[in-house]
């Protein structure tokens, strides 16, 4: 079986999805950085205790889409709520670009970030304040805002609500923690499939 080059795979994927092929030159920076792993948006929780994906008492709202949770979330909870002290720094789940910053009744101070080639989107809500601007590129160490209770969370314990979509579908944000950035897009999936087929063809 023929070994496909990187450019041939890119051309195939572009044709498959009906998109024009755009290959950045070496001198042009790529907008969506593909390095590092997806992380939690907080490094510390309540009482400033360090947190990780095994230390979970700081989760005050789980991923329950389409289910009645309470009067505040009658049609489900599409993300995860992480409790922390007010003004605790909030970080993006991975490197990407800020595409929206907004203030609205439900989410309060909210930031939207696109990751990879735009296949992964993350939202962060109820922030005390927003520290980034539309068009800004961020990495895992960028403080995008501070924990608060803005929007319909007013009066509850300070927390950040964050939602993640992969290829347009909601996913449990906890399920991608630790996965390599660049591994979740359709392009990455097809490349992985081609690699597997090439390995089988060798037998």
Task: Describe the 3D structure.
The protein is α+β, with helices and mostly antiparallel strands. The chain has one domain: Glucose Permease (Domain IIA) (Distorted Sandwich), CATH 2.70.70. Helix content is about 15%, strand content about 30%. The protein is built from two helices and twelve strands. The protein has helices spanning about 5-15, 185-200, and strands at about 60, 65, 75, 80-85, 90, 95-105, 110-115, 120-130, 135-140, 145, 160-165, 170. The strands form two sheets. Strands 1, 4, 5, 6, 7, 8, 9, 10, 11 and 12 form a ten-stranded antiparallel beta sheet that branches. Strands 2-3 form a two-stranded antiparallel sheet. The protein is globular and about 60 Å long. The protein starts with 5 loop residues before the first helix and ends with a helix. Residues about 15-30 have low confidence and may be disordered.
The structural domain count equals: 1
Order of helices and strands: HEEEEEEEEEEEEH
Low-confidence stretches: 15-31
Percentage of residues assigned to helices: 10-25%
* Topology, number of strands: 12
Q: SS-based structural class? A: alpha+beta
Mean pLDDT: 77
Give me the number of helical elements: 2
> Strand count, sense and closure of the main sheet?
10 strands, antiparallel
Comma- or semicolon-separated keywords:
203 residues, alpha+beta, Glucose Permease (Domain IIA), ten-stranded antiparallel beta sheet, two-stranded antiparallel ribbon, 28% strand, globular
Topology:
Elements: H1 6-16, E1 59-61, E2 64-65, E3 76-77, E4 80-83, E5 89-90, E6 96-104, E7 108-115, E8 120-130, E9 137-138, E10 145-147, E11 159-166, E12 169-171, H2 186-201
Antiparallel strand pairs: 1-4, 2-3, 4-11, 5-10, 6-7, 6-9, 7-8, 8-10, 8-11, 11-12
